[in-house]
């Protein structure tokens, strides 16, 4: 088993550089963005500084370890930059891994440069955690009007889609056959300018771009298929196996930021005749927060190393990393708020921001309960 118990000197230096870049360059761009909208200057900066090349490399696969280090480092200083990078990676990975040479040549350079915003369109109003229940139809059409003889028309709705409806390119999962469940699902690349494609933004707890997509007979053809017809669900699961540990890395980054704030506050704030850190109730709480955060970080690193080494059990390790790290981050951020008291709930405080940010990762890309189900099934495989 390949397990990363610690980072080497080069990795630690890179993480420090990423944190500095996030704090000095990306944070100001994030602050200038409109809540709930795609921040294109921020995405362009991610491309300009070479960060998007790690999720849209010109050659070779994505390194799960690099992705986790990227997300954890950015999350400590600028969650908006972290999320913008992650959403680009999530929307791009099906194209990167299963796309044709023509598809990759057309889109990857633009994505890596930060000029094209992508989205991963899997969830629907009645198919969230149970993604295999999706109902977006891909009806056969002998003349879809996209320069091919035979294709499909997409009809239905997607919901809770990050970067929708402002993305330039969507990876869309639709049902091309009558088979139930995961069978008969196909992945398509759908540019935003296709006729019949619309959508609207949703206001969410955290200020990220999330929205709905409406497909009113959107034309797609064989050149838009990612992977094989009927093989779309494997594309979705393969993408999530890579990104679930990195969701855990995002959570670890938020936990580290919250822990750092709590330690600083407990050392400075005086109450009951001394600093808060001298109160056993507070010091023991900080120790517990630190221990759980370190355990979550190690589980994420182990899952990433396992993925990169091609070891068996990737689905189980990915699920464990996401489950433990996101639950840990929720606990650590909440405990940090408690240590700070009312000031942490004031709009604009770091912990107020993290408190809103930390909730969603326990739901998206497979809720906590789904991760436990995956782990349990893998135990009996």
From TrEMBL:
Domain Acyl-CoA oxidase/dehydrogenase middle, residue spans: 119-217
Co-factor(s): FAD
Classification via InterPro entries: Acyl-CoA_DH_CS (IPR006089), Acyl-CoA_Oxase/DH_mid-dom (IPR006091), Acyl-CoA_Oxase/DH_mid-dom_sf (IPR046373), AcylCo_DH-like_C (IPR036250), AcylCo_DH/oxidase_C (IPR009075), AcylCoA_DH/ox_N (IPR013786), AcylCoA_DH/ox_N_sf (IPR037069), AcylCoA_DH/oxidase_NM_dom_sf (IPR009100)
Alphabetized CDD domains for the sequence: ACAD (cd00567)
GO molecular function: acyl-CoA dehydrogenase activity; flavin adenine dinucleotide binding
Keywords noted in UniProt: FAD, Flavoprotein, Oxidoreductase
Domain Acyl-CoA dehydrogenase/oxidase C-terminal: 230-379
Signal peptide positions on this chain: none
UniProt xrefs under Pfam families: Acyl-CoA_dh_1, Acyl-CoA_dh_M, Acyl-CoA_dh_N
Gene3D superfamilies, alphabetized: Acyl-CoA dehydrogenase/oxidase, N-terminal domain (1.10.540.10), Butyryl-CoA Dehydrogenase, subunit A, domain 2 (2.40.110.10), Butyryl-CoA Dehydrogenase, subunit A, domain 3 (1.20.140.10)
Domain of life: Bacteria
Acyl-CoA dehydrogenase/oxidase N-terminal domain span: 10-114
Record family assignment: Belongs to the acyl-CoA dehydrogenase family.
Protein name: Acyl-CoA dehydrogenase family protein
Naturally occurring in which organism (per UniProt): Streptomyces triculaminicus
Organism taxonomic ancestry: Bacteria, Bacillati, Actinomycetota, Actinomycetes, Kitasatosporales
């Amino acid at each position: 088993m390949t397990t990363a118990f610690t980072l080497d000197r080069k990795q630690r230096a890179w993480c420090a550089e990423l944190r500095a870049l996030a704090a000095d360059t990306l944070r100001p761009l994030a602050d200038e963005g409109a809540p709930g909208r795609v921040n294109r200057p921020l995405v362009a900066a991610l491309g300009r500084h070479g960060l998007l090349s790690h999720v849209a490399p010109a050659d070779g696969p994505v390194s799960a370890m690099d992705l986790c280090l990227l997300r954890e480092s950015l999350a400590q200083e600028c969650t908006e930059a972290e999320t913008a990078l992650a959403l680009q990676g999530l929307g791009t990975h099906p194209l990167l891994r299963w796309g044709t040479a023509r598809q990759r040549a057309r889109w990857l350079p633009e994505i890596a440069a930060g000029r094209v915003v992508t989205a991963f369109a899997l969830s629907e109003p009645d198919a969230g955690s149970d993604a295999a229940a999706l109902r977006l139809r891909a009806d056969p059409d002998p003349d879809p009007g996209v320069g091919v003889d035979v294709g499909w028309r997409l009809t239905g709705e997607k919901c809770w889609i990050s970067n929708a409806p402002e993305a330039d390119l969507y990876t869309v999962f639709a049902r091309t056959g009558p088979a139930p469940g995961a069978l008969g699902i196909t992945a398509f690349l759908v540019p935003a300018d296709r006729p019949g494609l619309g959508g609207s933004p949703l206001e969410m707890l955290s200020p990220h771009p999330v929205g709905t997509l409406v497909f009113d007979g959107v034309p797609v053809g064989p050149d838009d298929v990612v992977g094989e017809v009927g093989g779309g669900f494997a594309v979705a699961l393969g993408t999530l196996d890579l990104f679930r540990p990195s969701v855990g890395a995002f959570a670890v980054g938020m936990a580290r930021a919250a822990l750092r704030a709590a330690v600083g506050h407990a050392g400075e704030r005086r109450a009951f005749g001394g600093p808060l850190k001298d109160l056993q109730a507070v010091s023991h709480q900080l120790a517990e927060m630190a221990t759980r955060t370190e355990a979550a970080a190690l589980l994420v690193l182990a899952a990433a190393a396992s993925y990169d080494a091609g070891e068996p059990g990737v689905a189980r390790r990915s699920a464990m990393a996401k489950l433990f790290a996101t639950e840990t981050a929720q606990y650590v951020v909440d405990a940090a708020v408690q240590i700070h008291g009312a000031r942490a709930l004031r709009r604009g405080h770091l912990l107020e921001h993290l408190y809103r940010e930390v909730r969603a990762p326990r739901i998206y890309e497979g809720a906590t309960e789904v991760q436990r189900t995956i782990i349990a099934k893998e135990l009996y495989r």
